[in-house]
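ok so for the tutorial part 2 we go from a plain amino acid sequence to predicted structure tokens. step 1 is just haveing the sequence, like this:
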Amino acid sequence: MASVEMLMPKMGESIIEGTILTWLKKEGDTIEADESVLEVATDKVDTEVPATHGGVLKKILAKEGDVVAVGAPIAIIETNQEVEPSAPKSEAPSSAKEELVAAAPAHTASLISKSKSETTGPAEDGRFYSPLVKSMAKEEGISASELSAIPGTGKDGRVTKQDMLDYLSKRGEKAPEPIPASPAPSISAPNVQVSISASDEIIEMDRMRKIIAQRMVESKRISAHVTSFVEADMTAIVLWREKNKEAYKKKYGEGITFTPFFIEAVAKAIRDFPMINISVDGERIIKKKDINIGMAVALPSGNLIVPVIKNADQLNLVGISKAVNDLANRARVNKLTADDLSGGTYSVSNVGSFGNVMGTPIIPQPQVAILAVGAIVKKPAVVETPTGDVIAIRHKMFLSHSYDHRVVDGALGGMFVRRVADYLEAFDMNTTL
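step 2 — the prediction. this is what the tokens look like for a chain of 433 residues:
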């Protein structure tokens, strides 16, 4: 029998650590290779982690609630399988983090390196704080003394990310403390007085809702949001889908929604206007080569999640449709991986699925734009014909394009959404399955 360390896996772009949520197996249990043994949470997703080897789970090294760096050991498996020699234990977490630092933008790499040096020893109060906890404390303006007073539920009383979120959700209810000369603004828990009556129901936010709330407020603070609107004639697409949807389902075993048409048009427009496919890194603009389009999916819980279709411009309509259905189905049963949610360069939100004709979506950072597509509605419209203008019933839809005015001016933002509408209106009715 050989003993092998199971390491915290890399779970997506820019993720350097995860929080242990639940161990699905206990010490002494027999496990199979690739069998799920624990659940891990990151800022992006909760995901199950499979065993790297089959055998016996000899020892659990990371307890539930612990924040563990990518590449760090989390368990020891006793196995009969052949185990390849590995690098010394002390080098595994270091090499994994160095790989992430090397691939990160300059300012991100410096932050990661700084957080690494800051956590090599205990804080002044003798407690250890993960880089994530320190970052949250700094962002929320939590002083060292205030941080030391937060109860920790992690190993040896360590403060976890969930402890921070719980504290921040209740922070606004507490009596205000002495205010420093230049306090950092509170993002997730502003000090707003809320009156509560006996008939009111109090509902605690779940973890995902807390993260969504924080991300949305951060995006409004970071990006200068501007929205442009265009109305598109969807008649050709509506008629083609109505004519072919049964044949499509019979051939591919699944339905085709309007979302693939939107994503195909967006991918084409991004190729025409590549400066919409960018991110802002300090005072630098990062122009993305890949066109990875996120699509907002409403979950049964009422929360929203945005899985990503990678290299959408390289897929045809059928390929996009299959990717849309797969991601949407897995999102609704909580089977998305961290990789499914990472790497997006532009996003699409279908507010029309809720009967809304238009909306003003919030940009998901670090992207600089997002498109909301409204409900497709029949309405009378002027149609130009060789014999003159006529009034006809057409299927119309509003496109709402929110973009970051720091780097996307009105001309680019407006031309881009107009080009998306042009591609939708030019859909070829002779398209074959």
